Amino acid sequence: MSPPVPSKILTDDVSLLMVLIDSNPHFWSSIKPHFSFSKFLSHVLAFLNSILLLNQLNQVVVIATGINSCGYVFDSSSGSVSQRAESLLPKLEEFAENDESLSERDDDSGNGVGSSLLSGSLSMALCYIQRVFRSGPLHPQPRIICLHGSPDGPGQYVAIMNSIFSAQRSMVPIDSCVIGIQHSAFLQQASYITGGVYLKPQQLDGLFQYLATVFATDLHSRNFLQLPKPVGVDFRASCFCHKNTIDMGFICSVCLSIFCKHQKKCSTCGSIFGQAQTRDPSASQQRK
Amino acid sequence: MADKQQQVVVKRARHKSSVKDPGTPGVLKMTKDRFTFMANDPSSPVKLNVEFRTIKGHKFTKDGTKQALLNLTQDQGGNYIFEFENFPDRNVCKDFVASAIALSGEAGRTVPEKSAVPIQDEQLSAAEMERRIKLLQEDSDLQKLHKQFVIGGILSEAEFWATRKKLLEQNYSRRPKQRVALKNDMWSTKPLADGQSNRVTFNLTPEIILQIFAEKPAVRQAYLNFVPNKMTEKEFWTKYSRAEYLHSTKNVIAAAAEAAEDEELAVFLKQDDMLVNEARKKIRQVDPTLDMEADEGDDYMHLPIQDHGLPRNDNKDVLDSQYEPYRRSFSQHLNQHAAVVLQGRVIDVELGDTRSVAEALARTKHAELAKDASDVYLDKERLERISRMTEIEDLQAPRDPAVAPLSIKDPRDYFDSQQANAFSTLGDTVSGAKQLKCSVSTREAYCSLKECISEIKFQGLTEPTINSEVAFKVLNGLAQNISSNKYHLGRNPNESILDSLPKITREELLLHWSSIQELLKHFWSSYPITTKYLLTKATKLKDAMSQIYPKLQEIKESVQSDLRHQVSLLVQPMLQALDAAFAHYDADVQNRSARSGERPNGF
Fold first, then answer.
1. Do residues B112 and B95 make contact, with C-beta atoms less than 8 angstroms apart?
2. Residue B531 neighbours by CB distance under 10 Å
3. Domains of chain A
4. N or C: fewer beta carbons within 10 Å in chain B?
């Protein structure tokens, strides 16, 4: 960690930016005709360098989100001198190798793009931020930005919601820039709940302009700016049993887990759902 | 405990005419519409036979106090006090009385708009009813819902309040009334002086006297000491006014001379020792960890130009030290005055009696002093704060980071954000994933990823990073997006489409929405239907909902054409929810009729 900073220099607009980059190879190969990973990286690297230029004390940490693992690939405050963003490239290559080695040998998944481990990288980002919080009374203001394109994995619903709520509690906004084809319900909810910005850029080859206009401002300055607001947020939850997105379902009154079908027992907390057995009217009072 | 449907309660009790009265022992018998009391002693004149219709309320002592009393109050002011042998007895009677009063009240009165009519088989204490009525009076939306459903017979009282227990339990602390503060103008030391005669008039109102006592503790102390022993109040104030006059002339020497002659006057002319002590104490309480850094901007001593700040009076008269105590410092006086005004009114005494005002102020000051002296907690807090500010980092334990408090949001905030749901259907996200076909094996995918990375490593970033035309287009698009959002959703990010609708439509929409929420809540809670009660309830709710349905359609059509789209977007989720409920109900009815075909008993 960098040495403690005297209070005069640590002004309101120093930020710690956690960038979560989607490194799902299936996603990137499926989107290849429109937008390539190299172009994406060049926009993002330029953006990261400009963040580091905005303020001497800004910190940037990049986490790569793969399909089998997540890893830190860049930390601007490591080393004695603040590093340029390009130094993440070798680490990113290493990460891709590692991720590949973790995937099963003969997995020829020609059917659809799987989801990347967004919940894992969100958790890693939040852990890093917690460490910064505990490093002393003076620290930059942290925020998370997700550059994501893979579809939402309904199996990660619970983990992602947990990370969102802990981000909300620690007052860390989660910004989302969705580069995929469709909107991401998870990221919409994340940005709405934590007070971040959600954006789905119309033109991907202008990605740098989007990043610099909307996501580069620090938290203090956001009070004075009007940033794009999404029209609506998809608040639907997914059921815990099949991981489908549902509108109406059953909820355990003890732990608030959601199920799409009537169950005898809650799979999360184990409470047994009572059956209405009796027929006299006085029992109905108790059921309410 | 008492059975709910108890018709008669008979208990031993003593009838008392007042709380202190020992009372006449006897038997108290209560039925639904009247109570009777027969004394044990047949010759006693106490014999009561009172209808509950005349009883308006009941009061009782708390469980565990010396006497188990129940006081039944009448409209005209009469009351009947009964003392019971033990608290369980008393509680049985109390509950019975409550229901009896409610019952007779219901029968006797016509139902006014605002009161909550209890159902017969529910035992409500008067306090509970009062709380409900108060809640209804305070929240007009709740009242509308209540009127619509409970009075309309769709929901019962118990059901309505069953989910609102939290609201009922809040205790409504009385809001403190606004009080008038002290006046800020300092009592002018320029008294009314006629040009002609040598008279100088001072006006002293009780308000001014209060301020004088608050600002100058020495004067207050002198008042308590001198009046009425040494001089009358009028003399006291005359002397005080003389002292003020002398000060206003700024003639320190004359002040010294007069003080030497008149001992009491000297008290007013000298500096206020009590104030000095108070000031010292206050200085000690200042936080030593307060970081007040001075820089060049704070240096007003050596300013080249005299316009900044107060003009310095360099010609200080150097007087003999014997005159020093009689010099009055304006800035000290101003500070003291400001402190007193900001503190506000500390005492609550009537201003007419000067002596009591002085005594009350003296008491307050004493209490403050005593409190400060014994405020160990304050010291501990200060020490903690000092140690925190001058921390030795490696010796300190890590402190927990700040967290946002839990906030449970009002569902109405989410009302407008539901628009997205109107677009998407259930299968949307699943089908979305299928749009992206990845016809490449995993290995190839990773290969291309790594290729891209090495491409950048060797070639560097693309130059320019972004085409200027593209950047321009992006900026335009963003600006348009933001301004159209502003236009549609209002200037204020919190403002919504609702505010641009005419007021009546908006109220109607919100009312329908909250009624639908309420109805749906009860509707879904009554499934699965196992009893006849639930069946009738579900049917009633469904009918109520089907009445609201066409009203929503009407609203959609009645709005102006440019807002129609937004309104239909708002209304859509409500209609969807209603449709789902109707579908469920119909399916259930079909199942039921299919099953009743098998079982001849039905249901």
1. no
2. 19
3. 9-105+113-223 (3.40.50.410), 236-276 (no CATH)
4. N
Optimal mutation site among B160, B388, B441, B442, interface A, most CBs of chain A within 10 A: B442
| Contact (CB<8Å) A38/B401 | no
Q: Do A227 and B482 touch (CB under 8 A)?
A: yes
A234·B452 Cβ contact <8 A: no
Provide the 8-state DSSP code for A265: B
Axis-axis angle for helices A118-133, A157-169 (nearest 10) = 20
pLDDT in tens, B530-588: 788 888 888 888 888 888 888 888 887 777 777 777 777 777 878 888 888 888 888 88
Using 50 as the pLDDT threshold, list the residues of chain A that sit under it.
1-2, 276-288
- Classify B54 as helix, strand or coil: helix
- A203, B474: Cβ pair inside 8 Å? yes
**Cα gap B351→B354, rounded to integer Å:** 7
CA distance B320 to A258: 88
Could you give the CA distance from residue A211 to residue B501 in angstroms, rounded to a whole number?
36
* Predicted local confidence at residue B420, as pLDDT: 44
| Residue the block writes with tokens 């009782």 | B60
CA distance B415 to B511: 12
Report DSSP letters for B146-179, one per residue: HIIIIITTSS-HHHHHHTTHHHHH---PPPPPP-
Chain A residues whose CB is inside 8 A of the B3 CB are none
Direct distance between the N- and C-terminal alpha carbons of chain B, in angstroms, rounded to an integer: 35
Enumerate residues 6+ apart whose C-beta is below 8 A from B491: none
pLDDT at A80: 66
Q: How far is CA B249 from CA B34, B244, B255, B336, in A?
A: 83, 9, 9, 21
Chain A and chain B share a number of CB contacts under 8 A equal to 219
Residues B580, A248: C-beta atoms closer than 8 Å: yes
Please report, as a single letter, which amino acid is at residue B234. K
Instruction: Say how far apart CA A19 and CA A122 lie, in whole Å.
Output: 10
- Alpha-carbon distance of A206 to B288, in angstroms, equals 55
Answer whether B402 sits within 8 Å of A171, measured CB to CB: yes
**How many angstroms separate the CA atoms of B174 and B415, rounded?**
32
CB contact (8 A) between residue B401 and residue A182:
no
Distance in Å, alpha carbon of A179 to nearest chain B alpha carbon: 13
Beta carbons of B119 and B160 less than 8 angstroms apart: no
Which residue of B lies nearest to A22 if distances are taken between CA atoms?
B449
* SS3 category, B179: coil
A94 touches chain B (CB under 8 A): no
Q: Which residue of A has its CA nearest to B440?
A: A110
Q: Nearest CA of chain B to the CA of A85: how many Å?
A: 11
Question: How many angstroms separate the CA atoms of B101 and B104, rounded?
Answer: 5
Which phi and psi angles does B492 have, rounded to 5°?
-75, 130
DSSP string, B548-566: HHHHHHHHHHHS-HHHHHH
Yes or no, beta carbons of B456 and A45 under 8 Å apart: yes
Q: Across the interface, which of A112, A134, A279 has its CB nearest the CB of B436?
A: A112
For helices B273-284 and B217-226, give the axis angle rounded to 10 degrees. Answer: 140
pLDDT tens, A73-126?
Answer: 999 888 767 778 888 898 999 999 999 898 876 555 555 678 899 999 999 999
Q: Residue A124: exposed, middle, or buried by beta-carbon count in 10 A (0-12, 13-18, 19+)?
A: buried
- What is the length of chain B? 603
What residues contact residue B149 under an 8 Å CB cut-off, 6+ apart?
B155, B160, B515, B518, B519, B544
Q: How close B439 gets to chain A, by Cα (Å)? A: 5
Dihedral of CA A216/A219/A224/A226: which sign? positive
Interface residue A34 vs chain B (CB under 8 A): no
pTM: 0.52
Q: Is the peptide bond before B405 cis (omega within 30 degrees of 0)?
A: no
